[in-house]
Request: fold
Amino acid sequence: MDTQEEDKGKGTVIEAQALVLNKIYWYHGLMPRDEIEDLLKNDGDFIVRKTDVGSKDKLVVSVKCNKVRHVLIKVSNDVRFHITDQLSFDTVERMICFYVGSKAEIFPDGTKLLKPIKRPEWYLLHDNIKLKNKVGSGSFGDVYIAELTEKDRKFDVAVKMLKGKLGKKERAGFVKEASLTRRFNHPNIVRLLGIAAQIDPLMVVLELAPGGALKGHLQKNPTLHVDTLNRYLLDAAKGLKYLSEMGVIHRDIAARNCLLGEDMTVKISDFGLSVATAEVKESKLMKVPIKWLAPETLGKGIFSVKTDVYSFGVMMWEVYTYCKNDPYSNMPNSEARISIQSGKTLDVPAGIPTFAEEIMKDCWKKEPEGRPSFSQIVDRFTSEVESK
Reply:
C-alpha cells in the first residue's frame, strides 16, 4: 500500500472512531484548542477532540500538566491506537480507559490522564437536531428551522449550518462567535442554545425568531405606523445598551441583523464581527459594512461603543425609510467612504418624529465624544414611546 492510500485508510479509521466517540462525554469533537484550554483547570484534566494536521483528520488528547499539551493519537498500520510506543489498543475508548484506570504516565515528565472533563451543556449532538426547512443563506452557509430534542422535550429552533468543511481558523472564528453569544441573556438579544461541533458540518443553534428579519418585515409592510417603528428602535437600543454594559462592541449594527420574536419584539443577532473589548483598532478593514460605519472607523480603523452608536443612527435611517434602499445606495463604497469621512450624513427621512431626528443626528456627530450612550438613547426613546 502506498503512503497516499495508507493515509486515506487511516482517515477512514479516524472518522469511524469519531462517530463512536460522539456518545462519550469526554469527547469534544471539533472544538478548537483555545476553547478547550479554558476547560482544563488542574493537572490531569483532559479531553479528546478531533483536529486537522495539514489536510488530514487526527484525534488528539488535550491534557493539563503545568501547561496544556495536545498529544496526537497515532494509528498503526494494523489499526491500533497509541499515545506511547509501548502500548497500543484496538479502540480509542479502551486506550483512554486504561490510562485513567492505571494512572500510567503518558510522558516521562509525569503527565497523566486523571480526570476526563465533560462536554459543556451547550455542546449539542447532531443526532438531536432535525433540520426542517431552509429559510435563508449567506456566505457562511445556510439557515434552517429545525427541531431540537433536549432531554424529554422537542421544540423548534433556528440553525446556522456552515458550508463544507472548515479549516482551523474559520472553525475557531465560528466557535468564538458562539462562545461570546452564549454569555448573553436579554430579551432583546437572540439567545444561543448551543453549538454542534462533534462532526462536520458545524451548526449553531439559536432561539427561533418567527417574525424573521426586521429589514424584510419593513420592506413588506411600508405602511406601518411610526409608533411601531419607534418601538422597534427602542427594543434594539435596549439590546445594544445591554451589550455595551457587557463590554461588547457589535460592529455590524443594521436592520438586516435584527430579528423579530414571537411577540414582534426586536432582537439583536449576528455576532460574527463582535468583540468583547472597549475599543479595538484594525489595520485593515476586511469584510465590513462600509456604509454603516463611523468616520473614525473608516479613517483610522477604530471600533468602540461610540462607533456602534453611529451605526445605530444609520439603522434608524433604515427603519424610518422602511428599508426601501440601503444607505448611500446611489454611491459605490469608495465614494460613500469619502463622504462619511468628510462628515456628511444621510438625508433625514420624511415623516421621522422630531425627537428621533434629534437622536439620529446626535448619533452621527463626527466626534465620538459628542454622541450619546445607548443608555441615554434608551431613556430618550422610552420617554416618547411609553408616554403614548
The domain at 1-114 is CATH 3.30.505.10 (SHC Adaptor Protein). Residues 226-245 form the longest helix (20 residues). The chain has eleven helices and 16 strands. The CA atoms of residues 195 and 204 lie 5 Å apart.
